[in-house]
């Protein structure tokens, strides 16, 4: 696991999050984050000592969950106000928040328990359904998991 995967594992443990059961209201309550909904784009903010996340309630539940994880990534990884930042730095932070969201929604530690005797399509379907993510994200996370296992095995032979 890398630093971000370790961080997410600790977040799951500390907040007592059950894999595949990300409940934004519960997580926000534990972190003292105000969670609101709007018809505008999802965003996060910090105002007068209060951190908040606003989700676009016109999106699907799956899209809102991704947006929540993305904004939570900003909460854990970034400080300050993006409005004063250069575009290249904003783009960098957005990529980091996307990476956090993907890893938060489908954490590597939760993929250990899947039944790998099934067909590839069945496993992808299980990931999609268990974690309430798109098939594209399920495939991306499963490929990363397999690559991580392969690299671990390769390292064990080298050392």
Q: C-alpha Rg, in Å? A: 17 Å
Give average pLDDT, whole number.
91
**SSE order, as H and E?**
HHEEEHHHHH
Which stretches of 5+ consecutive residues score pLDDT under 50? none
Q: Please give the number of β-strands.
A: 3
N-end to C-end Cα span: 17 Å
Helical element count?
7
Strand order of the largest sheet: 1-3-2
Polypeptide structure, described:
The chain is mainly α and 159 residues long. The chain contains seven helices and three strands. It has a three-stranded mixed β-sheet with strand order 1-3-2, with helices on one face. α3 (61-77) packs across α4 (87-105). The radius of gyration is 17 Å and the shape is globular. The two termini are 17 Å apart. 20% of the residues are buried. The model has no long low-confidence stretch (mean pLDDT 91).
Give me a quick take on this structure.
It contains 7 helices and 3 strands.
What attributes characterize this protein structure?
159 residues; mainly alpha; 3 strands; 61% helix; globular
Blueprint of the fold:
Elements: H1 3-15, H2 24-31, E1 33-38, E2 43-47, E3 50-56, H3 61-77, H4 87-105, H5 108-111, H6 120-131, H7 135-158
Parallel strand pairs: 1-3
Antiparallel strand pairs: 2-3
């Amino acid at each position: 696991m890398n630093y971000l995967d370790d961080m997410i594992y600790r977040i799951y443990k500390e907040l007592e999050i059950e894999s595949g059961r990300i409940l934004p209201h519960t997580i926000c309550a534990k972190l003292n984050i105000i969670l609101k909904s709007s018809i505008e784009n999802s965003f996060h903010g910090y105002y007068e000592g209060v951190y908040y996340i606003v989700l676009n309630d016109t999106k699907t539940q799956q899209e809102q969950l991704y947006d929540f994880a993305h904004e939570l990534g900003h909460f854990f990884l970034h400080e300050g106000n993006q409005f004063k930042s250069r575009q290249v730095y904003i783009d960098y932070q957005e990529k980091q928040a996307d990476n956090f969201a993907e890893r938060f929604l489908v954490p590597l530690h939760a993929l250990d328990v899947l039944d790998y005797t099934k067909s590839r399509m069945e496993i992808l379907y299980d990931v999609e359904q268990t974690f309430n993510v798109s098939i594209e994200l399920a495939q991306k996370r499963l490929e990363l998991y397999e690559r991580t296992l392969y690299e671990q095995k390769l390292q064990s032979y080298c050392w």
